[in-house]
Every structure is written in C-alpha cells, then in structure tokens.
Amino acid sequence: MNRLCLIFCLTALVTFFFLLPACHAQKLLNENISVSVRNQPVAQVLKLIEEQGKFAFSYNSDIVPGDSLVSVSVKSVSVKRVLEIMLQGKYLLREKGNYIIIQRAPKEKYYHITGQVLDFETKKEVDYASVYSKQQLVSDLTDDAGLFKLRFHDRTFPYTLTFSKIGYADTSIVVNSETDSGIKVFIYPKAIDLDTLVITNSEKSHFWLARLLVSSRLRAQSRNLSNFFIALPFQASLTPGLSTHGRLSPQITNKFSLNIYGGYTAGVNGVEIGGLFNISKKDARYLQMATTFNAVAGNFKGLQIVGIYNQIMDSLSGVQLSGAGGFVHGLVKGVQISGAGNFARGGIHGAQISSLGNISGKNMRGLQVAAVFNYAKNLKGVQIGMVNLSDTSSGYSIGFLNIVKKGSGQVSLYANELVPWNIAWKSGNSKLYNIFIVGSSMNIRHKANIFGFGFGHEFILNKNLKFNTEITHQSIYLGKWTNQPIVYRLQTGLDIKLSKQFSLNAGPSFSLFSSQQKEFKTDYQSFADKGFFRFKVGQNAQAWLGWQGGLSWNYRRF
C-alpha cells in the first residue's frame, strides 16, 4: 500500500513539473489587451502593447520592420492574436521570463491570410461571420473581435474570399498575393424580406441531434452559408468539424463519406459509413450505415441501417432498418423495420414491422405488423397486432382489440339456443369488426356462463338492410374452470334498421361444441339437448344448427 502511494505521489509531482512550464509558457501571450491605432509604425505599436502588458519585446530590427505602418482596432484580445494581425502571422512568438521574443518563422508549406470583418454602418466588429474560399475550400468563423485566420496550401493566385452572415449581404474580395494579409473587410447590413406568412413545419431547424453533437460555431457557419453547396467525391471525418473538408463539411455532398466517430455533411449521393453516427444536413440516398444513429434533415432514398435509431426529417423512399426505433417525419414509400417501434408522421405507402408498436400519422396504405400495438390516423390497409387503433378505417384490423375512433360501434342484446341472455360489443368497420361476448342462462337450475371473442363482416344490402357473418370462440363455465367446454360458432343474420341508432337482427347459426367433461355438476347445463340436426364429430365434440335474435344499439353505425 505504501509503495502504491509513493508511486502515485511521484507521478503527480513529475506531471506538475511538466505542466508548470507549459502553463507559464503562454502566460504573457494569452493576456488580453485593447489597441486602436491607425497608420502607426510597428515599433510604436509594440511599445504601446509593452506598456499595457507590463512586459518587453525582444526582436531584431532587421527582421521586424519597425517603421512599417499598421492599423489595428481590437478590444480585449490576446497579445498573440494582436501580433498575428500586425505581423501577418509570419513570425515565431515565444516567452522567456518577462520577455516576448519575436523571431523569423521557419518556412512552412502553409501560409495564412488574416483580417478583420466590420459592419459598414456602425464600424463595429462582426462576430460569427463566415469567411471562405470556394476554390481552396478553406473557411473560418470570426471571433468576438471580428478577427479571422485562414490557412492555405496552394499559392495559386488570385482567388476569391467570400464573407457571409445572416442579416448581411454577401461580400467578396480578390486576394492577389500573401502580402494581402491583415485586411479589413466591411460588410453591409441587409434588410430581410419577409414573404407572405406561410405556416410550415419548423422541425428541421430544431434538429436536436445536430444541436447535441455539432458545435455552435459549426452550426452558425452552416446557417451563414445556407445558399452555398457543392458536390465532391469523398470526405473523411473524425468528428463533426474535424474533416477533410474542415468547417465546410456541412456544405458539401459526397459520393463516399467515412466518419470514424461521426460526421456532419450536406448529404450523401452514394455511401456513408459512420463508426457511431452520421448527420446529413440535406438529402441522402443509396446507403447510410452507423452503429448508433443516422439523422437526415431532408429526404432519404435507398437503404438506411443503424444499430439503435434512424431519423429522417422529410420523406423515405426505400428501406429503414433500426435496432431500436425509426422515425420519418414525412411520407414513407417503402418499409420500416425496427426492434422496438416505428413512427411515420406523414403516413405509410408500404409496411411497418416492429416488435413493440407502429404509428402512422396520416394515411396507412399497406401493412402494419407489431406484437403489441398499431396506430394509423386513416387506415386503408391491414393492421396485425394485439391492439389496433385508428381514427378512421376503410381497411382491416386483425387483433385482440381493434378500435376505430370515428368508426363503427354496436352493442347487441340477444338470445340464442345456448343461453337466453347475451350481450355483445362490436367495434371496427363493416369490412372487419371485433366481437366481445358475455352470456348467462340466469336460471339457478340450469346454470351456464359464456365468455367469447370473434370477428365479423357486414354485407350492406341497402341503407336499411344488412347481412352479418360472424365467427366466434366461446368458453362455457359449468362449475369448473378446468377443461371448460368450448363452442366454435358461425352465425349469420339480417340486420333491419328501426331508427338511426336501433336495429333488429336474427338468423341461423352453426355450432361445434367440444368438451372434455364427461359429467356435469348439479344445476349446470349439459348442452346435450341444444339446437337442431345434432350429430357427433369425433369422441368429444358435437355439432348442431341453432339460431339467434335480438336488438342492437348502434352508437356508431357500421
């Protein structure tokens, strides 16, 4: 134990001594100062900085042109950034004691263009303005003082720099050589023309996955460059912003996109693979794969595969495979398959398949299959699940409980040859409805209680006359919960409309009675004398013809 403590203390001590010089190394250069001079010699400006910072500069006058005139106007900016603006980033800066030493920088394969962006009317600094070159595909975002710094590889001049920000007119300048660094660019405020009020879905601008994983600076640049998009063959990203396209990645659509952890691009027109996630600002198509989530702010066409969650803010044309859940804000023309649930706000023209549930926010033309529940605002296809819900339906719902909110509903009180008192609740539409049945003999010497479930279909003959066909499964309690007799029943009948809400119904039936019980308890029925034209079906089953008739309350007409 003592040995471990000693090792820990030595490690901490060594780490402290290594970090101490590093922390001190940038102490002077990181101090904030304010400078406002116009056409003043470099040597004079350096003296002003020395007086503010309480330190001294050390440099060779043959290297630093002290008589060169510069103009600088900044507030609360680091000494390092001010020197980069003044000296155009061509010098190496380091600290020693109370001195900042300015040396000639070694020749680099890169060069920098620096400058400041200002408001033409107020002459104040403009922060969060995008500065970019369309030819070189480099960009930067101005800081609080309106300063920017672009790093270039290629010295092929001239090229154009463009300055963009929401609320300002785009401004472009031509850079002819490296000596054009240290520029000041004034951009003009622009009135935002408002079109006639149109209420549209604004969720694309509230793309929560982008807000969560993409930095505010990268999102600001993406908004500034909303009209600038190009297509390129390839990009690779470590994380959003750390890409072969740099901060311009959200403005570029790629044919192949590889994101080690995750990427934020304009879109994909081929294949995109993400270690953890992929975020597309616009449309994507063909193939998108990730382990955690895929997010597309536009349309998607093709195959989208993910381990956990897929999100498409517009429409899907193709197949979406999700380990946990899939979300499509617009219309789905294809298939959604997930381990937990699918949601298509714009409706389905295809299929939704999941282990938990499916939701279609508008028309559902196709198939919904889930182990637990399905919901469709307007069902025009088929639902298969334990519970099926819809607002309106002209399709088929197959499950234990099927409810159409604005559909048909009926409660029937009727008698048949099994027991004289029965109540049935019917819910669905005329094509297919559920039936729940409770019945009783109400006779203490011939007791029998019935519980049943089934399906029915209604043939509409005219506005006052309908023909019903129903299949039910009914369990009969005859004093014992074990080995209860079962009746499988096919019944048909005419439904005659008496008024808007009431109708009479009656008709013949066919019953198949199956029982393992050989002896029945006293005061309970044996069902040995039910129906007409009885005949045996095997050792334990009998069949007969029967009847039913009663009154129905149509709280929503089939």
Written overview of the protein:
It is a single chain. This protein is mainly beta. The strands form six sheets. It has a 21-stranded mixed β-sheet that branches. Strands 34-35-36-37-38-39-40-42 form an eight-stranded antiparallel beta barrel. The model is unreliable at 1-25 and 194-206 (pLDDT under 50).
Topology, element by element:
Elements: H1 2-25, E1 32-41, H2 42-53, E2 56-58, E3 69-78, H3 79-87, E4 91-96, E5 99-104, E6 111-119, E7 130-133, E8 138-141, E9 147-152, E10 159-164, E11 171-175, E12 183-187, H4 208-213, H5 216-224, E13 230-239, E14 242-243, E15 252-259, E16 262-265, E17 267-274, E18 277-280, E19 284-290, E20 293-296, E21 300-306, E22 309-312, E23 316-322, E24 325-328, E25 332-338, E26 341-344, E27 348-354, E28 357-370, E29 373-379, E30 382-384, E31 387-393, E32 396-398, E33 401-404, E34 408-416, E35 421-428, E36 433-440, E37 449-462, E38 465-477, E39 486-497, E40 502-514, E41 532-537, E42 541-556
Concise overview:
It contains 5 helices and 42 strands. With 558 residues, the protein is mainly beta.
- Structural shape: rod-shaped
Biggest sheet character = 21 strands, mixed
Stretches where pLDDT is under 50 for at least 5 consecutive residues are 1-25, 194-206
User: What is the rounded distance between the termini?
Assistant: 82 Å
Radius of gyration: 39 Å
The structure class reads: mainly beta
Query: Total number of β-strand segments?
Result: 42
Strand content: over 45%
Return the average pLDDT rounded to an integer. Answer: 86
Count of alpha and pi helical runs = 5
Helicity, as a percent range: 10-25%
